[in-house]
């Protein structure tokens, strides 16, 4: 048994961490939020230059053909640094859905552009109230809360076809039939948009997996990767709380020396450590494409959601009044926790999925 | 044990009920939180209207702008006005906290000058205790007042001052002697917020709002006549103010329950009403009994106060329980909404984005007026009588207490 | 508004507390547990002499005709002292079900014996797996977990009649057709029995209320009274924890001076205080026979269950290792908390009832 | 990252798998907890059988009764033996805690004499640290060892000693100098439990069992040769023992999850399977991710140990989380069962009254080996590196530390 990342993977993580500490401090995140720019283009270009979007794309399609484990360690660092880039949308979701649901020929056509970073992709398959219908290779309808919808070039959209069956379609988001409106959301560093389709040309993904099966598969993979982002965020929040309460004095002693604060931090650590360990198991199942993945992914996701909510909200409290200011970074983590937890359906949805899989196991 | 009014109370209730029906604005379906300055103007207008009708500060003496009635009359007023949309709790800190300080410590002439316009909100007051390095440890404050003939010269910084930007006056706690024990070296004053040497700077909150302020004092000069209580008696005066605060805010704190109940009654997920989902129902039951328990506990406290008691430290439990559940309810509602939960657009999000706004505002409610930890300390020490922790600042002069030289 | 008990009621409470402090210290409770005697006969005789079983029985039936508020303050003290007597079975349940479901004539016959203490009654109407059928004024079947089944003289039993409708029957538990077996339970100071009926003569309660409505009404009343017993237990547990941690030293200081212990006790106090306040509201609704009773009773019950579980289990922890010994009284409260919480159906059942009533309100 | 064995590990696994199949008892459906003394005899027989086959203490050197293999071999053994009903974790304190103390501090001759029969459980060991007035504060112990020529004379009382009633030897921590700092005045010894001056008295637990004991020392004389480590070095020796305990108990702690899963799969309420109830499912999900997280976290620790690391204080989290959920699961199951939940009869209650037994036993698991508060302190200080609280006993000689003169 070797329940840890390899030295090579740890090296990749260290490099990612150094790069992001330098290029993605919180002023970069704040810039995106303040200007409503959607993402930090310079950082995204660096990420492309480092080849991260290509990690899980096969070599024959222009990718690096590495395992998901490399993606897991990078996810941790993106989460820790709150990176305001369309990595979740384009890599965990956009790329993965093409790998899962597109035909070989479609993959050969679309994946190289994703690997090279020429194209930013997103997905519009969430469980929102809006709906889409497809007929004669055109789409009509709308999708809400689409991640990075205003900066992505392409979207894979779930829609009902003429036979009322769920299918996946690729659309070019620059097409003038599409109306795209930015929506205010809890975390403007992972911005959302509403997309309205009006006879928009669409290409059906024609791989062998059904749309439903492909979505489920991609969501499971993304659940593990998001869990690592959440763990990274938890660690950052714990570090912040530790630093602040250690520096600050009240009643003549360090705030961090009060048992109530120590125990608050211990509880944050415990939640994070459970989430991290569950994410590790998910990473193993993901990299081994093991049958355990379904349950492991739901477990990692639920554990990650609970841990990040706890760590990010108690980090605010540990900072006292300063934690409630716009100026301090506490709220950036808290906002990100909300954004990550609601992606792919919220906590109750994933808990129910977990139990389905546990009882079937 | 009954909830019935005495004949006199019933008559009073009937009187104000009919006055409110004629003069107060009904609750509208929507609403949501108003813009800060709009709400302020509305509140000033409402308080003036109430004062003109003779219903301001019902339990204050008439010569100070009140109605000369009892605490119970005030409770009846609160119960009735709660059925309307008026901003009746707006100046709760100024009137509830600063009022008693003036009433208790100022001269008769000052009382007659200052209190009536306070009661009608024609002049607005704020309270300045907290400082950057004195949060939970309020008595760690450093803003100095140095005697200079018949004047005091004030230097330093206050923070988390509610409504300072709208205030005409403020009650301020200062350090007048840093060479003795921290609790004995403080003195309380009031100050004109528009005088030279006082600068108010709003704090941008994590939710984008700016309800609180920093207030900077730079050689602000006040006459000794503005002193409230003895030199060195500031801590005792502050405790009196904080005790009155408990009564003023009792039962006012939002706990998020009514909005959650509304959500449970209306939301469907995958075509099913969530009110039929046992997981949602279990949360509803737990939050309901906490909500009901806070309310009933407040009623027990009001009964004790009506019988002549003082509001006990038990009131801390309403703040502790209510503030935490307010945040957790907002998060849970957002989780139920899934992908859509993150969207803050009032025209799309349930209940005009109430839960999204609350998830961002509620951390501040947990902090304001004392963190969860401070509330638990208050209950442990003041209610249960458990021993204090060994004090690192005990027996030390204020300027000898370890502070880590923190800048804020 | 006067949201408090009257001075007279507080006097009754003080007297009850003094009497029980004297006559019902924990050695009395332990005696019942160690000898499996079911109840303390001497204490029960004192309680009869004080007229407590007669409190809520109308004067024309030999009772005192007082309000339920007097019963509420006494319940608090019985809960505080863990009184090992059949008060719950005979007074809150046995007497109340007769008041709710028996005809005027039956009440006139049965209530005086309950008021005088000649008869100890219990009920067998819980939601257990066993079942009973009635036909031609005889009962067949069995009931499990019947409170004080081995010492009661009479039981009111829920059974299906020939038309498959639920009815209530009074049976004489001394009849030789009944087999009564003591069952081990978590709290032997509130003992349980299995009753097996074999053509046992039974008298149908023939009041105007249906059996179902009568049971619901009695359970709501009992829920409020049990909440007061729970509050009494919570207060005793908090007092124990406070006394022990104040006396005991660790690391050179009182254990009660550690913030983690202080906050544990504060949380116990908060839970108890919520339960107490909810119980007060229930007491008002009960005494006023207000329409609010249904919701208030469920609220008091759920709040009381949660508070007593928390207070009794954390009292053990506050005592450290000694809390886990048989010798210390901590476990007596913890056992009682389990016994009271499962009566009338457990926590999930009452939570669901609470929500039904809240949504209907 | 993989769970695959190396070829050598796979061969070892195959070997023990076939040995276990031939020699170990299969898990039966029912079982429940055995009577204390029956379980003891079964365990002794099993350990002897294992030792005879050469599988005892796999990671100990051969000359001391072990197999001279690695920690990973021990993990493989644990994984495989977990599929059988054998009491393999029975002597975990004696072998896991006392073993390393002897291994580290005893003379070569003592090691060769004492360790092999310990490994095969022919002689049984207990560990005596806790005292009536030294629980969470282990270093507050008072049992004295006073030098008398080449001997030490021991007086005092230990408590919470697991298995003392069955033990041949014990490791004991004593105060050898009360006039210096408490951490420097302790020394570790071992002692023959059957010698004069040693009396063992079982403690009746709240659940009726008697797993723990009080041990009284009344002028018990031991030779200086029984000393483990330097005079005054007892605290360091104790920390070494406690660190090894972490490894020994990693993943052994019951958390109650498997039994709850079984309940959810089988129980029907009002004819409906509870597995379809979203409220039950939500609890199942939360407890499952904790259960899975503890297991995965243990695997991470074992991986670190296999690479040469020491078991970190992170292990405290498994105890903290698992012990609390074990109690809460039992309570929740009982609540679900309603009126019937209180009945403890194994022939009536679900799973042979597992939940009723657990609700009474689980408070002890939360306490044994350190309370929740001690676990959180360990995580806060040893893992997160947060500052200690100001120490009331700092800089004081042991006999000057305030103790409130408590009797127990």
Task: Give a written overview of the molecule.
The complex is a heterotetramer, with two copies of chain A (361 residues) and two copies of chain B (408 residues). With 361 residues, chain A is of the alpha+beta class. Helices cover 55% and strands 15% of the residues of chain A. Chain A has a four-stranded mixed β-sheet, covered by helices on one side. Chain A has a four-stranded antiparallel β-sheet with strand order 2-3-7-6, with no helix packed on it. In chain A, strand 4 (154-160) and strand 5 (166-172) form a beta hairpin. In chain A, helix 4 (68-81) packs across helix 7 (211-247). The mean pLDDT of chain A is 96. Chain B is an alpha+beta fold and 408 residues long. Chain B folds into three domains: 7-90, no CATH class; 125-241, Beta Barrel (Butyryl-CoA Dehydrogenase, subunit A, domain 2), CATH 2.40.110; 249-370, Butyryl-CoA Dehydrogenase, subunit A, domain 3. Chain B is built from eleven helices and ten strands. In chain B, strand 2 (144-148) and strand 3 form a beta hairpin. The mean pLDDT of chain B is 91. Chains in contact: A-B, A-C, A-D, B-C, B-D, C-D. At the A-B interface, strand 9, strand 10, helix 8, helix 9 and helix 10 of A face helix 9, helix 10 and helix 11 of B.
Most extensive protein-chain contact, per-chain counts: A-B, 53 and 54 residues
| Helix amount of chain B | 40-55%
Encode the helix/strand succession of chain A as letters: HHHHHHEEEEEEEEHEEHHHH
CATH secondary-structure class of the largest domain in chain A: Mainly Alpha
Q: How are strands sequenced across the largest beta sheet of chain B? A: 1-4-5-8
**How does the helix and strand content of chain A classify structurally?**
alpha+beta
How many DSSP H or I helices of chain A?
11
Percent of residues of chain B in beta strands? Answer: 5-15%
| CATH homology group of the largest domain in chain B | Butyryl-CoA Dehydrogenase, subunit A, domain 3
InterPro entries (chains A, C): AcylCo_DH/oxidase_C, AcylCoA_DH/ox_N
Pfam family, one (chains A, C): Acyl-CoA_dh_N
Keywords (chains A, C): FAD, Flavoprotein, Oxidoreductase
Protein name (chains A, C): Acyl-CoA/acyl-ACP dehydrogenase
């Amino acid at each position: 048994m070797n329940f840890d990342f390899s030295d090579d993977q740890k090296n990749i993580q260290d490099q990612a961490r150094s790069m992001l500490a330098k290029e993605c401090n919180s002023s970069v995140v704040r810039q995106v939020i303040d200007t409503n720019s959607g993402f930090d283009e310079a950082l995204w270009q660096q990420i492309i230059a480092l080849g991260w979007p290509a990690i899980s794309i096969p070599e024959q399609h222009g990718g690096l053909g590495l395992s998901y484990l490399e993606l897991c360690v990078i996810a941790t660092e993106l989460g820790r640094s709150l990176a305001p880039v369309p990595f979740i949308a384009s890599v965990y979701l956009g790329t993965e859905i093409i790998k899962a649901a597109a035909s070989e020929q479609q993959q050969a056509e679309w994946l190289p552009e994703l690997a090279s970073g020429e194209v930013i992709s997103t997905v519009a398959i969430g469980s929102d109230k809006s709906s889409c219908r497809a007929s004669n290779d055109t789409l009509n309808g709308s999708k809400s809360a689409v991640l990075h919808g205003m900066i992505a070039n392409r979207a894979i959209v779930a829609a009902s076809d003429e036979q009322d069956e769920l299918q996946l379609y690729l659309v070019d988001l620059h097409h003038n039939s599409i109306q795209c409106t930015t929506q205010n959301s809890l975390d403007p560093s992972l911005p959302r948009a509403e997309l309205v389709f009006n006879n928009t040309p669409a290409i059906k993904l024609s791989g062998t997996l059904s749309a439903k099966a492909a979505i489920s598969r991609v969501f499971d993979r993304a659940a593990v990767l998001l869990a690592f982002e959440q763990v990274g965020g938890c660690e950052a929040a714990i570090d912040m709380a530790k630093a602040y309460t250690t520096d600050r004095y009240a009643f003549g002693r360090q705030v961090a020396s009060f048992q109530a604060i120590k125990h608050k931090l211990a509880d944050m650590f415990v939640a994070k450590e459970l989430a991290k360990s569950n994410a590790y198991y998910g990473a193993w199942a993901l990299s081994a494409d093991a049958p355990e993945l379904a349950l492991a992914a739901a477990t990692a996701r639920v554990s990650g959601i609970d841990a990040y909510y706890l760590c990010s909200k108690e980090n605010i409290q540990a900072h006292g009044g300063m934690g409630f200011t716009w100026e301090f970074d506490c709220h950036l983590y808290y906002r990100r926790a909300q954004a990550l937890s609601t992606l792919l359906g919220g906590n109750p949805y994933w808990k129910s999925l977990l139990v389905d899989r546990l009882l079937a196991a | 044990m009954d909830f019935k009014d005495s004949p006199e109370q019933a008559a009073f209730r009937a009187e104000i009920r009919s006055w409110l029906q004629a003069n107060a604005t009904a609750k509208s379906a929507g609403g949501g939180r108003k813009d800060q300055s709009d709400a302020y103007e509305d509140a000033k207008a409402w308080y003036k209207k109430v004062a003109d009708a003779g219903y301001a500060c019902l339990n204050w003496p008439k010569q100070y702008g009140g109605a000369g009635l009892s605490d119970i009359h005030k409770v009846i007023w609160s119960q009735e006005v709660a059925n309307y949309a008026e901003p009746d709790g707006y100046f709760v800190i100024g009137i509830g906290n600063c009022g008693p300080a003036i009433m208790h410590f100022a001269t008769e002439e000052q009382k007659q000058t200052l209190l009536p316009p306070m009661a009608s909100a024609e002049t607005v007051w704020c309270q300045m205790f907290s400082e950057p390095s004195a949060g939970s440890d309020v008595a760690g404050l450093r803003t100095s007042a140095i005697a200079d003939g018949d004047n005091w010269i004030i230097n330093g910084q206050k923070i988390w001052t509610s409504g300072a930007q709208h205030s005409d006056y403020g009650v301020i706690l200062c350090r007048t002697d840093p060479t003795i024990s921290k609790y004995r070296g403080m003195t309380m004053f009031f100050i004109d917020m528009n005088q030279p040497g006082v600068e108010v700077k709003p704090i941008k909150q994590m939710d984008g709002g700016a309800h609180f302020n920093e207030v900077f004092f730079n050689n602000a000069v006040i006459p000794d006549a503005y002193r409230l209580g003895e030199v060195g008696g500031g801590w005792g005066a502050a405790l009196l103010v904080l005790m009155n605060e408990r009564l003023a805010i009792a039962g006012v704190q939002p706990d998020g329950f009514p909005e959650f109940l509304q959500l449970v009654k209306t939301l469907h997920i995958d075509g099913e009403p969530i009110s039929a989902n046992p997981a949602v129902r279990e949360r509803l039951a737990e939050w309901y009994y906490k909500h009901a328990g806070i309310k009933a506990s407040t009623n027990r406290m009001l009964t004790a106060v009506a019988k002549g008691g003082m509001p006990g430290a038990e009131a801390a439990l309403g703040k502790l329980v209510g503030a935490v559940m307010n945040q957790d309810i907002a998060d849970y509602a957002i989780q139920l909404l899934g992908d859509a939960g993150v969207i803050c657009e009032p025209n799309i999000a349930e209940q005009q984005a109430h839960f999204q706004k609350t998830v961002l505002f509620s951390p501040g409610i947990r902090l304001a007026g004392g963190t969860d930890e401070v509330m638990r300390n208050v209950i442990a020490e003041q209610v249960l009588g458990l021993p204090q922790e060994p004090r690192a600042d005990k027996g030390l002069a204020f300027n000898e207490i370890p502070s880590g030289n923190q800048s804020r």
